[in-house]
Design a protein that fits this description.
The chain is an alpha/beta fold and 256 residues long. It has 2 domains: 90 residues, Leucine Dehydrogenase, chain A, domain 1 (Rossmann fold); 123 residues, NAD(P)-binding Rossmann-like Domain (Rossmann fold, 3-Layer(aba) Sandwich). It is 38% helix and 17% strand. The chain has 9 helices and 10 strands. The mean pLDDT is 97. The chain binds NADP nicotinamide-adenine-dinucleotide phosphate. NADP nicotinamide-adenine-dinucleotide phosphate binds next to helix 9.
């Protein structure tokens, strides 16, 4: 029997990426997914990466393909990602999968936003009609999350670096999701009493990890809050495993 297989493509040697790839490899090992790590140097030509993606697309022994982000300067992440076959795009970042998500059609969903939705579901937090504020509009987190929240009938506000009077929007949130990448950026006075706060940020300082939310102060005000580390991060890895298994099962069905 063919075993599920995840292929991770890395370009360069970013230390944070090395850590994340190790965590993915460990999770795969724990649940019996074969893990393939393809590492290119920063000097690699774009065409070589494209050819590798095409080779993996056509390899029946590979069921999920992930391009580890961020890429070194000079590489176009959007272009490369869109070479990944949509049924192997376990990061849910191709235009096809993102478009399907916005149209509420079955697709592979980006892992971090999917993990956030699972956390909320697990805590029985009803989103219908609730004010959800998302701070950050990256393709990886903020943008897919808008679609997922809308599909659950939440009222969604999206903030970014050009947003004026940010606190006005964060204080209006029943559910506040922060994905900015700035240590303890959200302070207690920016959060509504009894809000649910989801901290996506991972900021390393003096070998310690911090979120985007001032956890110790905000936790006294929020109804629920995710810690960093140990909150959204492990959910992202769990959702990646789920996506690989789902992609594997669909591909196996097609091949019989
Ligand atoms: P990103 O691509 O750098 O996006 C950051 C977003 O924050 C942008 O939309 C930016 O606005 C916005 N922003 C920056 N400064 C702001 C300000 N002063 N006020 C309001 N918005 C501001 O980052 P990302 O990939 O989404 O990641 C965000 C954080 O989450 C990072 O710490 C990353 O390490 C972490 N992360 C964690 C996981 C996990 O599994 N836990 C997964 C992915 C990412 P503009 O669009 O206007 O530039």
């Amino acid at each position: 029997m063919i075993k599920p297989c995840l292929a991770v493509i890395q370009i360069g040697d970013d230390p944070a990426s090395n850590t994340y790839i190790k965590a993915k490899a460990k999770a795969c090992d724990e649940i019996g997914i074969y893990f393939k790590h393809i590492k290119f140097t920063e000097e690699t030509k774009e065409i070589e990466v494209i050819n590798k993606i095409i080779e993996l697309n056509n390899d029946e022994y590979v069921h999920g393909i992930l391009l580890q982000l961020p890429l070194p300067d000079g590489f176009n992440a959007d272009k490369l990602i869109n070479y990944i076959a949509r049924n192997k795009d376990v990061d849910g970042l191709t235009d096809i999968n993102l478009g399907k998500l916005y149209n509420n059609k079955p697709c592979l969903i980006s892992c971090t936003p999917q993990g956030i939705m699972k956390l909320l579901e697990h805590e029985n937090i009803d989103l219908e009609g609730k004010n959800v504020t998302i701070v950050g509009r990256s393709n990886l987190v903020g943008k897919p999350l808008i679609g997922l929240m809308l599909n659950k009938n939440a009222t969604v506000t999206v903030c970014h670096s050009k947003t004026e009077n940010l606190s006005k929007h964060t204080k209006n949130a029943d559910i506040l999701v922060v994905a900015v990448g700035k240590k303890e950026f959200i302070k207690e006075n920016m959060v509504k009493e009894d809000a649910v706060v989801i901290d996506v940020g991972i900021n390393k300082e003096d070998n310690k990890l911090y979120g985007d939310v001032d956890f110790n102060k905000v936790k006294t005000k929020a109804k629920k809050i995710t810690p960093v580390p140990g909150g959204v991060g492990p959910m992202t890895v769990a959702m990646l495993m789920t996506n690989v298994i789902n992609a594997y099962q669909k591909q196996q069905k097609k091949s019989v």
